Structure prediction request, 241 residues.
Amino acid sequence: MLPAYVIHAKSLPERREHIQRELDRAGIAFEWVLDFDADEITADVDRAYFAEGVDLTLRQKSCAMKHIVAMQRIRERGQDLALIFEDDAILVPDFCERLKRVLAEAERWPRPRVLHLGAATNFYTPASQLRPGQLVYEGNRVRNMEAYVLGAPEAAARLDWLARNPMDEPIDIAFNFGDPAMGIPFLWPEPPLAEQGSLNGVFASSLSRKQHLRLQLRIQFAIQKFKRRYLRRWLSGRAVD
Prediction:
């Protein structure tokens, strides 16, 4: 299995327990990324990585910095490929077996490339593009950052881009612009290998300014998932799994 890193805020112990169980179940050894909690974002860090006057909360900046730390470790250690998880990631039961097949198929794309393993807010490849037996497709955006695969070449490219382009959006949205500029495709496994617990209602969001009831999130996410992943594809006669 690949080296793995978990983005975690020390103030969210329930998430620590959750992701520990998820990765233990999958048999994935990992390293915590605990640097830069919200109360550790200094003025120097703010100036170095974020645009002046940007409308981001300290928790959003903290999340971005933790992803940066994970990429720095991957770059410094020269790791060819590594997994990065956020602490609310929920993995499919056969995650490792599916990941092996996805990684093998992704070799069709030259480096640099990033595999976005999660579904984010229910982003799926359009039914018209699905092909029997194909597992990996080019998407049109970052599928959030609950679970993804990159290596030292991609980490170095992203870190260099961030050094030249201070963030004025959350880090996943920043890469919606940065990755195409660097020639990095958005690769999406179909079906996805993970969901984000703060989007599907398992956890309350720690980043969003709008706090929704978890039951409301569960219902909204389930309806949206049914429409996008199943109904549209059923209507077009395409398989979903």
Remarks:
- The mean pLDDT is 88.
- The longest helix spans residues 214-235.
